[in-house]
Amino acid sequence: MEKKNTLPLITKKEEIFKNITTINKYLDNPNSIEYNYARGLIRRGKCYIAFSYKGEYRFCPSRFIGYVNNTMEAHEYMGKKRKETGKTTRDGKETNPAISAILGDIILVGDTKWKDLEASFLIFCKKLGVKPYKNERKYWKFDGS
User: Which of 58, 59, 120, 124 has its CA 20 to 30 A from that of 29?
Assistant: First the structure.
């Protein structure tokens, strides 16, 4: 059941690509509020979509990517606690299955691909000047096709 006051969950690769494009626009403009917002999302995340951009890996958190046509404003709105429930309307428990339905199984610690993705993630964070939370991270790979 879809929550009120939220965007619909993604159902196709094109929707993932559109949200990746949004995050890339934020990260390509370091003098913007959106840049710092994207850095914060990346710092706090647990589950990420890894994708190649201009010859390097970038990473987007699933809680942002998992909603159709997401933006900083929409994501912030969904992150506010509702008076009636005391909860937010954005949730990785909803977005992660939606992403897995499109991209397949998530890559976990112990998977042979995880170590390389984790190393690339830490390099990406260093370039952004971000110290990520000490979460056990999980990844999907997005090839854009």
Answer: 120
Of 17, 41, 53, whose CA–CA distance to 125 is shortest? Answer: 41
User: Domain span at residue 120?
Assistant: 13-142
For 43, list phi and psi in degrees, rounded to 5: -60, -40
- Sheet with 138-142: strands ordered across: 56-61, 47-53, 138-142
Residue 123 is assigned to a structural domain of this protein: yes
Instruction: Answer yes or no: is 7 within a domain.
Output: no
d(CA 12, CA 99): 9
Of 83, 87, 81, 62, residue with least CA distance to 9: 62
Block means of pLDDT (10 residues each) for the chain, 145 residues, are 66 97 96 96 96 94 94 77 52 84 96 96 98 96 81
Please check whether residue 86 lies inside any domain of the structure. yes
- Tell me, what's the pLDDT at 3? 46
Residues 77, 74: Cα–Cα separation, whole Å: 5
8, part of any domain: no
Cα gap 55→114, rounded to integer Å: 19
In whole angstroms, give the CA distance from residue 31 to residue 43: 18
Q: Residue length, the chain? A: 145
